[in-house]
Structure formats: C-alpha cells, structure tokens
Amino acid sequence: MADKRTELQTLAQAIVQRSGLHELSFRQLAERTGVKSSSVHYYFPEKHDLTAVLISSYSEAFAQRLAAIDAQPGSLRRKLSGFVDLFEQAAQDDKLCLCGMLAAEISSLDERCRGLLSGFFRQAELWLARILEQHQGEVLSPLPPGRLAAVLMSGLEGALLLDRVHGAGAHLQAQRQLIDSFATGAPS
Amino acid sequence: MADKRTELQTLAQAIVQRSGLHELSFRQLAERTGVKSSSVHYYFPEKHDLTAVLISSYSEAFAQRLAAIDAQPGSLRRKLSGFVDLFEQAAQDDKLCLCGMLAAEISSLDERCRGLLSGFFRQAELWLARILEQHQGEVLSPLPPGRLAAVLMSGLEGALLLDRVHGAGAHLQAQRQLIDSFATGAPS
DNA sequence: GTCTATATACAGATAGAC
DNA sequence: GTCTATCTGTATATAGAC
After folding, report:
1. Least CB–CB distance from B161: residue in A100, A178, A181
2. In order of start, what are the domains of chain B with their CATH numbers?
3. Which of A30, B83, B106, B140 sees the fewest Cβ atoms within 10 Å?
C-alpha cells in the first residue's frame, strides 16, 4: 500500500460496497489498518469527507474504465458486454456498485455527497446513451438511447442487489441476455 | 390505528422503506408512537423479530396485490402495467420496496430474515414468469419467461433506487417503455 | 502523523415495579 | 402493557501531548 491514506480509502471502499456506509466506522477502519481512530480523523476529518472522497475516486476509476472500452473498437454488443463486466467484477467479490449501495442509503448523505452520487449515474448513463447512439444501426429496439440507457443502468444495479439475495448470478446473466436480444453483433 | 402493535409495525415499515434498517431504532419508534422503548421490546423482543415481521407482512400484502391483478382478466401488457404500479406507489411516497432496501442491507440480517427476503423475490419472479408463460403469444422477446422475469424484477428494483438519486421518475418510466416494447396489447 | 484520553450521543436490550 | 432505571457497547468527534 502506497500510504496510509490510500490504505484507509481502499479498505473503506470495500466495506461500503459489501456492507454499506453504516457498517463503516472510524474505529473498525483504524483497527484493521493498525492505527487509532483519531489518526483516521487526521486524514478524513468527518465521515462525510471520507464518503465524498470514496464517491469521487470511484467515479473517476469508473470513467477510466469506460474510456478503456471506448479505446478499442468493437461492436455495440462487445462494448455493452464490457460495461456489464464492470458490474460482474463487483458481483464476484460479493460487492455492490459503491454508488448503488449509497443510493439505498441516500438519507444518510449530505448534499455534497448526493451531488457526487447523482454525477456518477449521469456519467454512466450519458456514456451508455452515447454508445447506443453511435451504434444505432445495431440496436434492435424502439427505445431511444436515453431510455435504453436508463433501462440498462437500473437493470444492472438491481441485478447486483438481487443476486446477493437470491439467484447466484442469474439476474446479471439475464441482463446479458437482454442486451444480446437487442444488440446485434453487426459491423461497428 | 387498530392497536399499538400495528401502529409500531406500520411506522417501522415506512422508516425502513425510506431510510433503511439502520435508521430504525426502538427509541425513535417509541417516541413517535407515544410509548417508551421498553414497550416496543414488549411487542418485538429483538430487532430481528421486528425485521422478520416486516418482511413477512410485506410479502403477504404483495402477494395479495398480485392475486388482485390475476383476478381481473386482461392482456399481458395490462397485467405487467399493474405490476409496475406496485413499485410506482412506493416511488411516489419517496420509498423503496421494503425488500429492495433490505437487500442492500443484507449483511445486517440474520439467517431467518435472509430466508424471508429470498422468499419475497422468488414469489415475485415466479408470478412474473407464470404471467409471461400464460400470455406467451403476446411476448415479443426471445428471452424465456424466467429470464424475462429476472430482467423485470432487477430493472424495477434498480429503477426505484436510481429515481431517488437522479431522474425524477425517468427510470421507472423507462421500465414501462421496455415492457411496452415486448408486450403486445393483443388478445389475452 | 500518531498517540492517549475523553466528551457526547445513541444503539439494543433487560430487570423489576406498577 | 407500560413504566423507570440501567447496563453495555459503539458511534462520531475533538483536545492536546509527543
């Protein structure tokens, strides 16, 4: 681990993705990284500060992965499959999307964090809508790109949620089949 | 309110649907119903007991609404629209589905509650799959009923989640459009 | 940067009087 | 059934020494 701040942040993110913001405590964070809770407050004065950093860095990492998908050419189906892979990675670690988890806990977030959260979803859906528009010839659906983007984002966040309760990956798999049903493997 | 137990249960359900299990405390529950927290423990000895009752009664009420949809004949599109209405009602109250919320908080549930939660989703998806199968002539989708049921359930739970953050009902609306795109209004 | 020590608040839960 | 009173644990957060 590069430094203590990064170590704390990485652990905090994993805890939120697995168990939620309420299971994240400065004490636990301290114990599991070998410092005292007051030291955690040195890096992140208040819990809202830590939360905001988590959302920001998660959004940034997500954006980079989207850029990586953009970088190499491919069909719509291939690109959307790459998008689903981002969620699959979380699922296989028994995690939710950080922002999906925080969306459920929105009543505990301050205004700043709510804005960052909203930004994450806007970013993801704008990316999806743009991809769908760029490959419109490969879309076998009457839904306009923005609507289809909303369907996919809801579906993927919901699939992560439900697969932890029930179904052993079946919900994410069903989302893949939905995509295959409207995205042809045709020329880019 | 019929009796204190019912009053407590009703309030508890609303708190969980709006803010989650962690925001539900025996103290708050007591204050807002005019008793002391020890009285709440009289009705629900432990928090897990209250949680289990909430899930059970929510599942039961949900099943009754599904039966009401079954009761009056109609096209697939009409029935699925009635299903979405159940989620729409929660959304307009700024609530999530109780079980969607608890799915996010699964790490805080005991085994009994997890089983009840799983039962809720199984029930909902089996109903959807049955409806899709009964109206298979009206389904314009290559996905088998079970898969389509999983897609819809994920999508609706996710839509409730995302609409609270971002979009003012757009995600639920997009789910309705998805349904309209594959469910013909054809004869029942 | 990390520590000790502490303030303050609130959580779930129980004992026992009435 | 409802109360008072209390136990115990944990949370966020801060002051100030080193």
Report:
1. A100
2. 47-181 (1.10.357.10)
3. B140
Burial of A86 (0-12, 13-18, 19+ CB in 10 A): middle
- Of the pLDDT bands very low, low, confident and very high (cuts 50, 70, 90), residue B1 is low
The rounded distance, in Å, linking the Cα atoms of B142 and B71 is 28
Cα A62 to chain centroid, rounded: 7
Distance B113 CA to D11 C1' (A): 25
Output the CA–CA distances (angstroms, integers) from residue A84 to A58, A153, A178, B34, in the order listed. 16, 10, 11, 49
CA atoms within 13 A on the CB side of B125: 27
Work out if A28's Cβ lies within 7 angstroms of strand D: yes
Counting runs of H as helices and runs of E as strands, what totals does chain B give? 9, 0
∠ CA(B168), CA(B173), CA(B179), 5° rounding? Answer: 165
Phi, psi of A31, deg, nearest 5: -55, -45
- Which of A127, A105, A113 is closest to A56 using CA atoms? A113
Tens of pLDDT along chain A (188 residues) come to 679 999 999 999 999 999 999 999 999 999 999 999 999 999 999 999 999 999 999 999 999 999 999 999 999 999 999 999 999 999 999 999 999 999 999 999 999 999 999 999 999 999 999 999 999 999 999 999 999 999 999 999 999 999 999 979 999 999 999 999 999 976 55
Please list every residue in chain B whose beta carbon sits closer than 8 Å to the beta carbon of residue A117.
165-166
Give the residue nearest to nucleotide C13 (CA to C1'): B46
Mean pLDDT of chain B: 97
Helix extents (H) in A44-184:
47-71, 76-92, 98-104, 111-134, 145-165, 170-182
Give residues with Cβ within 8 angstroms of A34, minimum separation 6.
none
Tens-digit pLDDT profile for residues B90-148: 999 999 999 999 999 999 999 999 999 999 999 999 999 999 999 999 999 999 999 99
